[in-house]
DNA sequence: AACGGAACCAACCGCTGTTCA
DNA sequence: GTGAACAGCGGTTGGTTCCGT
């Protein structure tokens, strides 16, 4: 192996193709077909290497290439296929007639990838990412000084870590762009304090000292300082200060000292009312494939080159678009998938 | 109008897998 | 069995265009 690049020979032209070169290449292939790319340049009187000719033909000159912007359906298909196949651009292109792998790859990197990131979705795993949501920047806290009420809240919310779906959804909804302005939607206003508290509870739950409760951890100043993503424990107040919440908004859920975990189904109901979300049970959320998950939902492919099967914990919520805005339509396109019905990808599994 | 940064995309690079002498 | 030739793939580059200041 380790063969020298075919364009290293002197005298071969590189860079953009001229119209004359294109015409020569097209005329030759029309007459002789796609044959030996190595001998083609010489036979077609082109000062190019065969590899360059092949790329030019397959990516640009081929008559069946569809040019122009990607349609919404094409974009959705790319996202769905990428969630299963990963960066297998040629495999994705094979299922999008008229589109080349290079074109899809470019479109992914310049459009889709950025949009997913903006939505708080990891473009590699297709899973919403809490760590991409910079809550501290939203709230601009000066420091975190937990009050006794905060600690009580944390104690009550610690079991929320058992609701990863809830956390992901809240994160996604909060990361969503609002339709007309930078002002958060009412749903976002309600979700934000919930997510903050749940996120804190999850962090505590994921890496607690052996015998420390969540609240105990926050009693340690050094621990509090080291917790990533910690924000002021009263986001409602902070939101109010930042003019993100109307002054008459009232008491936000989660800041009642008598907070109970039955807020969780209430939040699920709220989210469901907002976007027809369907929840998997918290008990089975990380493994359950029965709901809208592997085979019929978003998968989380490995970024490794081989075997893009669902190895990581999959995203386990999905949505049906109905009375939702542009973001929600996008999200629904991402999450409401029935790939097994549409595509035969078994050869890549 | 001029400039600079961002966005876009065609083309290149380097690697892997396959074929064949 | 070996290695060169080749096709194909994914990642990256760099030139061009767009857009805001």
Automatic annotation (TrEMBL):
Residue intervals of the HTH myb-type domain: 9-61, 62-116
Keyword Nucleotide-binding set for record: no
GO cellular component: nucleus
Pfam families: Myb_DNA-binding (PF00249)
Cellular compartment(s): Nucleus
InterPro entries per record: Homeodomain-like_sf, Myb_dom, Myb_TF_plants, SANT/Myb
Protein name listed in UniProt: Transcription factor MYB39
UniProt main location, coarse: nucleus
Domain Myb-like residue range list: 9-61, 62-112
Keywords: DNA-binding, Nucleus, Repeat, Transcription, Transcription regulation
Domain of life of the organism encoding this protein: Eukaryota
Low complexity compositional bias, start-end: 280-305
GO terms of molecular function: DNA binding
Region: Disordered, residue numbers: 278-312
């Amino acid at each position: 192996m380790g063969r020298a690049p075919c364009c290293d020979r002197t005298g071969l032209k590189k860079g953009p193709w001229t119209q004359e070169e294109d015409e020569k290449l097209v005329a030759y292939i029309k007459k002789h077909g796609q044959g030996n790319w190595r001998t083609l340049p010489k036979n077609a009187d082109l000062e190019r290497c065969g590899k360059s000719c092949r790329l030019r033909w397959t990516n640009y000159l081929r008559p069946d290439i569809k040019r122009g912007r990607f349609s919404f359906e094409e974009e959705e298909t790319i996202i769905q296929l990428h969630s299963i196949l990963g960066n297998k651009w040629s495999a994705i292109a094979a299922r999008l007639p008229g589109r080349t792998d290079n074109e899809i790859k470019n479109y992914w990197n310049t459009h889709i990838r950025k949009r997913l990131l903006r939505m708080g979705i990891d473009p590699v795993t297709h899973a919403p990412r809490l760590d991409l949501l910079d809550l501290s920047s939203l709230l601009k806290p000066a420091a975190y000084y937990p009050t006794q009420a905060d600690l009580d809240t944390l104690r009550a919310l610690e079991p929320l870590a058992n609701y990863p779906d809830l956390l992901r959804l809240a994160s996604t909804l909060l990361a969503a762009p609002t339709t007309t302005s930078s002002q958060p939607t009412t749903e976002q206003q309600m979700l934000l304090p919930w997510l903050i508290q749940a996120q804190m509870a999850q962090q505590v739950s994921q890496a607690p000292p052996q015998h420390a409760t969540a609240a105990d951890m926050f009693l340690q100043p050094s621990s509090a300082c080291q917790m990533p993503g910690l924000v002021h424990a009263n986001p409602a107040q902070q939101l109010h200060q930042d003019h993100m919440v109307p002054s008459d908004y009232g008491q936000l859920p989660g800041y009642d000292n008598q907070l109970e975990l039955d807020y969780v189904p209430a939040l699920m109901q709220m989210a469901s009312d907002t976007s027809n979300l369907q929840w998997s049970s918290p008990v089975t959320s990380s493994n359950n494939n029965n709901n809208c998950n592997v085979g019929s939902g978003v998968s989380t492919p490995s970024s490794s080159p081989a075997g893009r099967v669902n190895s990581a914990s999959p995203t386990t919520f999905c949505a049906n678009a109905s009375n939702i805005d542009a973001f929600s339509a996008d999200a629904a396109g991402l999450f409401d998938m029935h790939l097994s019905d549409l595509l035969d990808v078994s050869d890549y599994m």
